[in-house]
C-alpha cells in the first residue's frame, strides 16, 4: 500500500490510478466481456465503490464470481490473481462459503485475513461483504470493502459465549475467582458453579448444543455445534444455515422461520454443503432440533444439531436395495406376462387341431365300422388334449388376471358351479398317464354332498380345477413303483 499512498501523495488521483490498473488487461477475453458491454449496475458500482477507494475494495460478479478489484486489493492479495479471475480458482473454502452466504442476501463482516493473505498483520481489520442487486431485483454479485478498525479483536468472536461471559464473570479462569470472591453472595456463587458445570457438561456432549434468547440470539453455544457445521468461516450460531445444501436450504429455512415465529418444536433433516474435502465419503446429513424453553413468550429456545450421516446412509442404502428388488420383481412380472401372451397362440393352435382331429375321426368312423375301438381311443385322446390345453389356458389367464389385479384393473367374482361334474372332467387329463404307469384310478365324491343334497356351489372354479396335487401324487407314486 505504501507505493499507492506515495503516488496519491504526489497529487495523482486514486481514481485515475485504479482506472489505469483496470484498463491494463483485455476484458473482452474474460467471462463478463468487454467493459463497454457491462451492465449499468456493474459499471456504476465499479466507478463509485471500487475505483475511488484508496483502501481494499473488490466486486465478485456473476455466477462465476469474477473478481474486479482496485490496486489496494491486488497488493493485499500479493498480486497473484490479477483482474477477472474466478473466485473458486484462487480463494479458500472459507472465503467461498462466505461469498455464497452473501449471495443469498445476507450482509456479513469477516476477518480480512480470509480474503487478503498478504495484508499486514498490524492491520487487524474486517471486510464488509454485501449483496449486489440489479435494477430488476436479482442478486448479481458481492461487494467487498475493508473496514479499518484498530480496536477489532484478533479473532472472530462467538457472540453467545461472549455475552455469557459478560453476564457471568464467574466463568473466567479459576485463578481470578479468589480475587472477586468478596463481591458475590453465596447464592450468586451457587449460580456460577451451576453455570460452570453446565458448560463443562455441554462440551462433553457429542452433539451441538445452543441456548438462544427470545430473539434467537445465542446465549451459549458449545464447541460441538461448530464442529458439526461444515462451513468453518464463522464461529457464530447465526452462521449455521451456511452448512445447508443449496437444494435443502429454502425448505429448511422456511420451516425454521415458521417454528421460531410460532414458537413450535422443530425437527428437520438436511444435507450439508461441504465447503472443503472431508474424510467422510458421500453426503453428510444433520438433524436440527429447536424447542422453546417454556410457553412464556419471553422465554428463549434450546437448539441442537446431530450428525446422522451413518443412520441416513444406512437408510438410503436400504431404500435403494428395496427399490432395486421391486424393479427386479416388476421386470420378472413383465417377462412372465409377455411369455404368457406368447403361449396363447400355440395353445390356440393345439386346441383347433385337436378339434379337427375329432371331426376327421368321426367322419372315418361313419364309413368304417370295424375300427370303433380305435376311434374311441382317438376321440378320448383328443378330449384329453383339449382338457390339457384348457387347463394351460386357465393358467395363462390366471397369470394375466393377477397381473391386472396387481394393477387394480381386475376384481374377482365367484360363480355357481357343479363340483362333481367339473372335477370328473378335469381329472380326465391324467387318464393317459394312469394307463402308461399301470395305475388304477377311481373318482368318487364325498357322501356328504348326497346327504345334504348339494349339487351347486359358489366357488372359484379355476382354483378348484388346478391339477398340481394330482400331478405331485403321480410323481410320488412313480418313485415308489
Automatic annotation (TrEMBL):
Keyword Glycoprotein among record annotations: no
SMART domains: HisKA
Domain of life per record: Eukaryota
An annotated Gene Ontology molecular function: phosphorelay sensor kinase activity
UniProt keyword terms in alphabetical order: Kinase, Phosphoprotein, Transferase
Residues annotated as domain Signal transduction histidine kinase dimerisation/phosphoacceptor: 331-408
Coiled coil (UniProt feature): none
SUPFAM superfamilies recorded: Homodimeric domain of signal transducing histidine kinase, PYP-like sensor domain (PAS domain)
Protein name: Two component histidine kinase 1
